[in-house]
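User: Please predict the structure of the protein below. I'd like the answer in structure-token form so I can feed it into my own downstream comparison script.

Assistant: Understood. Taking the following sequence of 293 residues as input:
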Amino acid sequence: MKRCMLIVNPTAGRERAKYHKDNLRQQLETMFDDVELRETQKAGDATEWAKEAALTGFDSVFSMGGDGTLNETINGLAQANSAIHFGFIPLGTINDLARALNIPLHPEAAIAMLQHCKTVKVDIAKANDRYFVNTIAAGIMPEAVSIEQKTRLGPLAYFLTGIKAMQAHKTSLFKITTAQGSTVHRSPLIVAMLTNSVGSFRNLAPQARVDDGKIWLGIFKDFNYLDLIKVIPEFLAGQPLTSELMTLKTMDRVRIELLDDSHLSTNMDGDEGPDFPLDIEVLPSFLSVYVPA
């Protein structure tokens, strides 16, 4: 008997889940003999349930929610370290993994996609004792974006608040250690990426693939306000950032240390991440994810 656990965040996407969860369940019932629906009530529920599903014989886990629900579910699957298929219906504002996998961003289309789907292997990465599928970043971070801004501007809201944050022109001193040795960089922002979609933009690591087994590390250079004004039109037009603004390196593991007293926090898949130092390693082809056939 094929079993599936469906984990739904009822508050995600301005509570859109309640309009789509029944349709998703009906679709999954055509694919599995048993579908168990669970709705999250607090942080950590998705992680606990995904781990339970992987360890108790479920064939697949599906999640419906934003990037936070996605990250929690994948952390549960990674902790279980058991072979299981994974699917998700994106309800967030950014949905970088969905963009990278060409999964429709509208929930009705994403559910319909499951009628003709396949699975592909997808890398994840571990940072200290936690896991991520998109990015972990540190440095000048965007301010909190209101629901009104996200509704009106979508992903552009994050870009505009990020530009505003960078005007502060603060930098930190980072030590980057890979198998090739150590280097020191003064930077306003560093971003470790697994896909070619970061904040819905594809300019930072356009050659990144979900299954290339690489961490793409972007180290922004110390630039002034005039540099920022110059690059905005190019960035919005989809052009990759030049080496004058960002150094891009690839590796399968990296240690990132903070050498000054800037007391930076990190951001992992849109939520607060682990503290420095960061020990990051890629887990190649860890997930089997349902995507359009």
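That's the full token string. Confidence is low (pLDDT under 50) at residues 142-147.
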